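Weekly modeling sync, notes
Attendees: AB, CL, MP (scribe)

Item 1: holo prediction request
CL wants a bound-state model with adenosine monophosphate before deciding which constructs to order. AB pointed out that an apo prediction alone won't tell us much about the pocket. Agreed to run with the ligand included and paste results into these notes for async review.

Input as submitted:
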Amino acid sequence: MSKDTETLTIALTKGRILKETLPLFSSAGIEPLEDMEKSRKLIFPTTREGVSFVLLRGSDVPTYVRHGAADVGVVGKDILMEFGDEGLYEVLDLDIARCRLMTAGIESAQQRSAAKIRVATKFVNIARDHYARRGVQPNVIKLYGAMELAPIMGLADEIVDIVDTGNTLKANGMVPRDHIADISSRLIVNKASMRTRNPIIADLVSSISDAVSARADSLGMGD
Ligand code: AMP
């Protein structure tokens, strides 16, 4: 086996997902050599020779994996639903960073007629699909953050956003309406890497899968 097939680049999502991701890799014997949350670096060697982490925005993770710049990635299901899974395999539900994709609106607002509804979101494809399934063609307005502000400012009637505790919606006078999907982080693998870097990838997936089961058992979620 050439040296190259023994190296592996793993793209991780920065932010709140990272905290829950690292213990899973740690259980699989892969730990970054320095604190990823404190460093300003983007590439991190690990305790496993030839295996490195790169730290990306979630929405960039599938792009790196799809093009083979990273072999493996960790990304939210919301991102996969929005940007598609072309060129990659979704191999494992990591059961971390669980949340829901919902529509929401201002509690006191009168529902607009479906024909005129304006929806603000960063998930434009998911939003179009969801409303289309209800026979509605909304005017979808793309935003990059603070979706909750849009109905308050009169920019939109509803939003499509990620909801965890619901506190952000509540604090802004909004209520959840339709549940679109349950979300959690997924392990994804580049299709070509899956062939060329087996068994290192198969080994990794199996170790991470064990770590996910062990975590579920310790949280009393196991069956
Ligand atoms: P909450 O107030 O707990 O409902 O959290 C809602 C906000 O946190 C949303 O604006 C989301 O952008 C963000 N959020 C919550 N859970 C996640 C997650 N698992 N992944 C990414 N963002 C999240």
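Recorded for review: The radius of gyration is 20 Å.
Action items: CL to compare against the apo run; MP to circulate these notes.
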